[in-house]
Amino acid sequence: MLKPAYPYFLANAPVFANTDLEVTDKYTGEVATRVALADAQAIDAGIAAAVEASEPMRRFTPYQRQAVLEHCVARFRERYDELAMALCIEAGKPIRDARGEVTRLIDTFKVAAEEAVRIDGETINLEISPRAKGYRGFTRRVPIGPCSFISPFNFPLNLAAHKVAPGIAAGCPFVLKPASRTPVGALIIGEILAETDLPKGAFSILPAHRDGADLFTTDERLKLLSFTGSPAVGWDLKARAGKKKVVLELGGNAACIVDSDQRARLDFVVERLIFGAFYQSGQSCIGVQRILVQEDLYPELRDRLVKATKALVAGDPKDEKTFVGPMIDEKEAKRLDDWIREAVTAGATLLCGGARNGTMLEATLLENVDPAEKVSCMEAFGPVAVLQPYRDFDEAIRVVNDSMFGLQAGLFTNDIDKAMHAWDELEVGGVLVGDVPSFRVDNMPYGGVKDSGLGREGIRYAIEDMTELRLLVVRDRPRST
User: Fold this and answer.
1) What are the tens digits of pLDDT across the range 222-234?
2) Enzyme catalytic residues
3) d(CA 408, CA 431)
4) Residue pLDDT, tens place only, 150-185
């Protein structure tokens, strides 16, 4: 279970400044713990500490950074059950999904530990013409400096880890604002980082309300802002971020195409679509929201999906049998419930689900949805998916691309030509063949195009954003003859 209260971390140290932030059990609605809430003064102090730590962090050797990250891996393993239960309580994440996220947290820090000693440069051949004869070029990567990280509620551990771990590997001090609804996981990471010999000021983890956290975005002492969250908030932050580099991992309404040649393995396809649409109550930016099925296969796949969706167990996320837990709060559940009702009023067919009780929204499938309806064209971020048939493959590609988002897309096909065509034509950051778009491995480049974001996560790719190239040019000394 959770502790009665948690401090924030300012310049590597726990500070029990107050207990002003209540963290609720997302299933029961009861207060589960209380967390210290950072004010503008604390945030300013955290940024100042990061600035002071810039030089010590730059001189902190790669093997020392690696040792810190390896310590975290060992301690995460020791506190595995505690971390999983914290996720289950503060995020309402079904316990099986919570354990999966802790496993990914460990993977992310393991990869970062490996990459910490592989931040290499290159030798450049400058002798491209006679005037450059005798010149040699070399590059190296140096830390960008103090970084600002803002992480979301839906993966409180692993999406914070995708900022913190590469930040440490790159040698960048940072201030982290975890989501105020789910701060506990990040604070446990802080407890473990505080056990290491990171230079003072290397990290601050400061839960804060959105309206009190402007310094995370606007302060000019920060050299990079990495934000994961909603598109509306992300693009607003970018507009106010000033001269700093900005990395945005935003939303999506991910689509999955199912080709007619999948009839022989339809059980597998259904299993993966159900997982992609409804794991952790659909609160994933790469959750399956739009399912496009070749018309010859559509009736059979639709019926199987409906049967499988109705069989899902919903309820207390602490129960091992639960697949669909609560949404993050009742406001979000009501918002998506309204979208479903609007679509049905406009002519959509409700195949199953569609009922809400507080934060619990049934796993829902719709068909005949007008593409202009919010449940189709916006990010649903909940347990709902929209089905539609398509006639030919190019039509399916056009439908997937007819979106303001472009994060990931899935494709079930045995046809390598269609797979390569999808990779060529789909306007997304990643195409997954043989699986749903919800699949992610933590070392792969991850991010989107259009309103889905800017830049890439995945440890090596995040390190590139958190470092700058520094060039060295050496001219040979003239040789005496």
Assistant:
1) 999 999 999 999 9
2) 249, 285
3) 6
4) 999 999 999 999 999 999 999 999 999 999 999 999
